[in-house]
Design brief:
Helices cover 31% and strands 25% of the residues. Strands 2, 5, 7, 8, 9, 11, 13 and 14 form an eight-stranded antiparallel beta sheet that branches. Strands 6-12-10 form a three-stranded antiparallel beta sheet, with no helix packed on it. A two-stranded antiparallel ribbon has the order 1-17. The longest helix has 56 residues. By secondary structure, it is of the alpha+beta class.
Length: 320
């Protein structure tokens, strides 16, 4: 009898132990679950950190073989299609006037937009990215900057009077990078602005609407087959308008004032709105002064020219 009783007791205990084991396992898993979630969260944060760090060190690495300051741009094969994220942008200047379009000009390809700015105006980074080139080119861009962005684009800012950033510096969209100027091969103070993909110049008007101070959409998708027609239409809609004199308010709108002490001093000295003349073939300083009703001395002083300076068709001269 005692043997039977003891056997029953052992059987009951064994059953209790066997049924308790899964419960203990479940409790252990339940206790470990929050730890797993925390570890996953840590891994996600760490992964995000390394992605951000890699993008800062080498933006758009999947499109470009290297990050070098040895060249302003080096064309490589373009993908047939590429989606460019335009969100998080900043207009490089508040100027609304395009003085020269993207495309053929004077027998050669003009690979950017010329935007009217004054000497000393603040120029800002169009997107966040890493500064690749800061250099001076006397027969071309003058003082210029090239920035590579995570969306695949590189933006070029030319003819600056001063560069405010250094190579390999990370800049955020909207951060001041330079001052407007008239350096290099330039016909009057302006910003030469380029957008390049894999080193190939794309029409900035496909993405930027300077007149309305906005991008055209959240994304622009480059398509090799349709690019030419789209570029021509973008120039028609958002390119240069008019030819000749225009005022400071035409450039910046009525809410903007002269942006530098130099501009304010000249405006006080000569009075009235800032007015400009685009030089045509055959014109001289004397003929321009006569047609605008001002003196040659005034034109020279406003544009930092000497009386015997050579002027070329397309130059933009301030006369008031």
């Amino acid at each position: 009898m005692n043997l039977k009783r003891n056997f029953k007791r052992l059987t009951i205990v064994a059953l209790l132990v066997i049924t308790a084991i899964p419960a203990c396992g479940q409790d252990l898993l339940a206790r470990e679950a929050p730890i797993d979630r925390k570890m996953r969260a840590v891994d996600t944060v760490a992964t995000r950190y390394y992605i951000i760090k890699e993008n800062r060190e080498n933006p758009a690495a999947d499109l470009y073989a290297d990050f070098s300051d040895k060249f302003a741009h080096k064309a490589t094969p373009l993908p047939d299609h590429f989606k460019i994220d335009l969100r998080g942008f900043c207009m490089p200047t508040p100027s609304r006037v395009i003085t020269s379009n993207f495309g053929y000009r004077w027998g050669r390809m003009h690979k950017g937009l010329d935007v009217k700015v004054y000497i000393g105006d603040t120029i800002r980074a169009a997107f966040s990215g890493k500064v690749r080139v800061v250099r001076y080119e006397p027969r071309g861009y003058g003082n210029y900057i090239v920035i590579r962005h995570n969306n695949g684009l590189e933006t070029v800012y030319g003819h600056l009077s001063k560069q405010l950033v250094a190579e390999n510096q990370y800049v955020k969209a909207g951060e001041p990078i330079g001052l407007g100027g008239n350096t290099g091969r330039s016909t009057g103070s302006h910003l030469h602005f380029e957008t390049r993909l894999c080193g190939v110049a794309l029409n900035p008007a496909l993405m930027f609407d300077f007149r309305n101070q906005d991008v055209v959409a959240d994304y622009y998708t480059y398509n090799q087959d349709t690019y030419g027609a789209e570029s021509a239409e973008a120039t028609r809609l958002r390119g240069k308008r008019g030819n000749g004199g225009y005022s400071h308010s035409d450039v910046y709108g009525t809410s903007e004032t002269a942006s530098t002490k130099q501009e304010e001093k000249l405006e006080n000295e000569f009075g009235g709105q800032n007015m400009y003349h685009k030089v045509k073939s055959g014109e001289t300083l004397e003929s321009i002064a006569r047609s605008r009703g001002v003196s040659v001395d005034q034109i020279c002083k406003l544009n930092h020219l000497t009386k015997n300076a050579n002027i070329r068709p397309g130059m933009i001269l301030r006369y008031s």
